[in-house]
């Protein structure tokens, strides 16, 4: 096996239901110790992809390899229990009639003392050894989750498939458990494919994000790249609120109330969307009907009137009705900034944080 052989590789996976391709030519590879998040809206085919890899569902086309060895195509199929794949799903069910330690030892083979020792080792790791001889119902949701994780890891799976495993937990508990889980998985060098529809979870967990839409992977890369170099408007919108201004291209440039934007490769007369996130909008006060002078970084300011301002904790969200066309733009401002409705203010846009897309595209 070459040193760079992926732990898990799927090639051109296809699955249709009733003539509709819900998994449409999906390819992915994950190295040992790497966490890839399959991120996308509800119904885009994430769980189906996971179920095919787990072997509980068959693909119509495509292959799956583990450490370079074919484990499944449309003819040949290693059964699920021999794939060395650990599973952790949202509705992880512990066996209520087994103790915590027996739950963790459940998937292990060999003599009982060795299985018990391995279960205890894992329970130590998730700080639950003191519950070993209790039954699951005596544990909180978060503790049960950690038991489920210990159970999934006990057989030392080479691959871990996780389907929204943290969605049943409350927010505060979730962050801690996510981080603990990640540490554990990295320690044992497992390749992880984690399904989520929450961008924040994906950003927190992933080495790589595969953004999925309508059965296809539309973009794949490190969280930083997906966030900062999105492929289209929908990819921007998946991670945050967005603002959009429409412009027409002339000489690879488009003129807007915020100044000119480059639109390389777009033909004259075509429309483009200039897309930016509310946190990249700057706000300045009105000085007798004038705004700040244009700058290279932020271009020209445009005037708007506050329509609504809401306090969100770490930041405030302010919505403006823009003078230039009556459209609404949003800005987030750190801390408390709650100007009264009707206050005129001047908006600028971080030009290096704007994305220019041809004005078709999804959303
Ligand atoms: N057994 C099935 N028979 C028919 N259609 C199915 C079946 N399983 C899934 N689908 C359809 O395939 C599509 C993808 O489903 P899937 O469960 O993979 O979505 P998902 O991305 O996991 O969504 P969610 O985030 O809501 O869990 C959905 O439209 C679903 O209705
Ligand atoms: Mg799902």
Automatic annotation (TrEMBL):
| Molecular function (Gene Ontology), one example | ATP binding
GO BP terms in the entry: quaternary ammonium group transport
SMART domains the UniProt entry points to: AAA (SM00382)
- Give the superkingdom in one word: Bacteria
Q: Does the keyword DNA-binding apply?
A: no
* SUPFAM superfamilies per UniProt: MOP-like, P-loop containing nucleoside triphosphate hydrolases
Q: Which UniProt keywords apply?
A: ATP-binding, Cell membrane, Ion transport, Iron, Iron transport, Membrane, Nucleotide-binding, Transport
Q: Which InterPro entries match?
A: AAA+_ATPase (IPR003593), ABC_SmlMolc_Importer (IPR050093), ABC_transporter-like_ATP-bd (IPR003439), ABC_transporter-like_CS (IPR017871), ABC_transpr_FbpC (IPR015853), Mo/tungstate-bd_C_term_dom (IPR008995), P-loop_NTPase (IPR027417), Transp-assoc_OB_typ2 (IPR013611)
- Kindly indicate whether the keyword Iron belongs to this entry: yes
Report the residue ranges that make up the ABC transporter domain in this protein: 8-239
What's a GO cellular component annotated to this UniProt protein? ATP-binding cassette (ABC) transporter complex
- Name the PANTHER family on file: SPERMIDINE/PUTRESCINE IMPORT ATP-BINDING PROTEIN POTA, SPERMIDINE_PUTRESCINE IMPORT ATP-BINDING PROTEIN POTA
Name under which the protein is recorded: ABC transporter ATP-binding protein
